[in-house]
Design brief:
Layout lengths: L6 H17 L3 H11 L7 H7 L2 H31 L3 H9 L12 E4 L5 E6 L5 E6 L4 E5 L4 E6 L6 E7 L1 H4 L1 E6 L4 E5 L5 E6 L6 E6 L13 E6 L3 E6 L4 E7 L5 E6 L5 E6 L3 E6 L5 E6 L5 E6 L5 H7 L14 E6 L3 E6 L4 E6 L5 E6 L5 E6 L4 E5 L5 E6 L7 E6 L3 E3 L27 E3 L3 E6 L3 E6 L1
Antiparallel strand pairs: 1-30, 2-3, 3-4, 4-5, 6-7, 7-8, 8-9, 10-11, 11-12, 12-13, 14-15, 15-16, 16-17, 18-19, 19-20, 20-21, 22-23, 23-24, 24-25, 26-29, 27-28, 29-30
GO molecular function: dynein complex binding; hydrolase activity
Family: Belongs to the WD repeat LIS1/nudF family.
Pfam family, one: WD40
Length: 463
């Protein structure tokens, strides 16, 4: 007798086997088994019908159950990992040290309303508003904390290619640019009314950024905006008058991206000519050209001063540049699938290899330790600058299609004397803000990241 089965269970099994053999046209085998087991006349037709099919049912249910068990074990392991990383101790540690926070799947919110691919996202510097622009010609304003659509802003006649918050009035204007050749300014405090349209570019306007006001004595006023275009130029605009105050020429093809330094002194741009260029924002003169990519450069980022120590070590420098210095290190992302880190003089520091498709967005972690990238391979990757740029985390399938843009929520400035912590109303650039100046205010990193995709979704990753 099997030790696993009781006598009753064994009897049930035997009858099921005999019924199976009978139905399978194996009468001699069934009779032999009945004789061996001393199951005589008690096994009649009614009994056979009762046990018909029982063996097959049990067999298939066991296979199904095994598969279900494997799925549940896998799910259990995944949940256990999540639980392990969110114990009270780790939560406390995470709250204490947002400089080490990295986004993880799943996203807190998936925001759906756009009807065409999303091209850009930008955070309001103060409120929990997130703007997204799309090829459907609209800008949508979301509450990223609640995950709700607040309004749809219409005005452009072709795809919106970039959006940014900044400028005067505490850095709370919204700027947008489009394939319709225009830049538009919207006032969030007046129901996102279109307060100005800036015409002047001869082709699609690919990127825009407000230029932050610099330190004392800097010529930047906080009223300036820079735009990059397919007409091969950068233009600097005064948003209070709507006038183009400078046209910067030097690129030989479509300029895809532009970002200003945190103090407004420098502009970094890149595009189809496979170069990135650093410009003096006040004169428009070129400072440096970054050569090395083998395809179009899609995106650029300037390292915040808090990252200088890690990047200086990576570059083999004995001493990091002072925090007051800007544009000391830059990052570029290209269709050649690589990210390159450079110093401010054009020397290549490191090439980061890992993406399987075009790199479309870059952002430095405001803690200074990481660089995050988004790409057409549907992933977000986190590169650790303290480990020679090693990829320490990959969010696979961050979106269902190409990830087109990535932005970090600007830091909150506490105990500040003025709105947004700057007497001149400076906006925080690319999610990496100013260092504390003269005790004016202390920055508190917001662990919030937004991405947009060709899959029509905006995703918010938050702690």
């Amino acid at each position: 007798m099997s030790q696993l089965l009781t006598s009753r269970q064994a009897e049930e099994l035997h009858k099921a086997i005999i019924a199976y053999l009978s139905v399978s046209n194996l009468p001699s085998t069934a009779a032999a088994l009945r004789q061996e087991l001393n199951i005589g006349d008690s096994f009649d037709d009614n009994t056979r019908k009762k046990y018909e099919g029982l063996l097959e049912k049990k067999w298939t249910s066991v296979v199904r159950l095994q598969k279900k068990i494997m799925e549940l074990e896998s799910r259990n392991a995944s949940l256990q990992n999540e639980l392990d990383s969110t114990t009270p101790t780790s939560l406390l540690r995470r709250n204490q040290d947002p400089t080490s926070w990295l986004p993880r799947s799943p996203a807190r919110h998936t925001l759906q309303s756009h009807r065409q691919p999303i091209t850009c996202v930008a955070f309001h510097p103060i409120f929990s508003s997130l703007a997204s622009g799309s090829e459907d010609t609209t800008i949508k304003i979301w509450d990223w904390e609640l995950g709700e659509l607040e309004r749809t802003v219409k005005g452009h006649t072709k795809g919106v290619l970039d959006v940014d918050f900044g400028g005067p009035r505490g850095g709370t204007l919204l700027a947008s640019c489009s394939s319709d050749l225009t830049i538009k300014l919207w006032d969030p405090s007046d129901d996102y009314k279109n307060i100005r349209t800036l015409p002047g570019h001869d082709h699609s306007v690919s990127a825009i950024r407000f230029i932050p006001s610099g330190a004392a004595g800097s010529p930047s006023s906080g009223n300036l905006l820079v735009s990059a275009s397919r007409d091969k130029t950068l233009r600097i605009w005064d948003v209070t008058t709507g006038y183009c105050v400078k046209t910067v020429r030097g690129h030989s093809a479509w300029v895809r991206d532009v970002v200003p330094s945190f103090d407004g002194r420098w502009l970094l741009s890149a595009g189809d000519d496979q170069t990135a260029r650093l410009w003096d924002a006040s004169s428009g003169e070129p400072k440096c050209t970054f050569l090395g990519h083998e395809h179009v450069i899609e995106c650029v980022a300037l390292a915040p001063p808090v990252a200088y120590a890690h990047l200086a070590s990576l570059a083999g420098l004995k001493k990091a540049p002072p925090p007051s210095s800007s544009a000391e290190f830059v990052a570029t992302g290209s269709r050649d699938k690589t990210i390159k880190l450079w110093d401010g003089r054009g020397t290549l520091v490191k090439t980061l290899i890992g993406h399987d498709n075009w790199v479309r967005g870059l952002v430095f972690h405001p803690g200074g330790k990481y660089l995050l990238s988004a790409a057409d391979d549907k992933t977000i990757r986190c590169w650790d600058l303290t480990q020679e740029g090693k990829c320490v985390k990959t969010i696979e399938d961050a979106h269902g299609h190409f990830v087109s843009c990535i932005r970090w929520a600007p830091s909150v400035i506490k105990d500040a004397g003025a709105v947004n912590g700057d007497a001149n109303g400076a906006a925080v650039v690319n999610g990496a803000g100013k260092k504390e100046e003269n005790g004016k205010g202390k920055e508190s990193i917001r662990c919030v990241l937004a991405t947009g995709s060709v899959d029509l979704n905006v995703r918010v990753f938050a702690s």
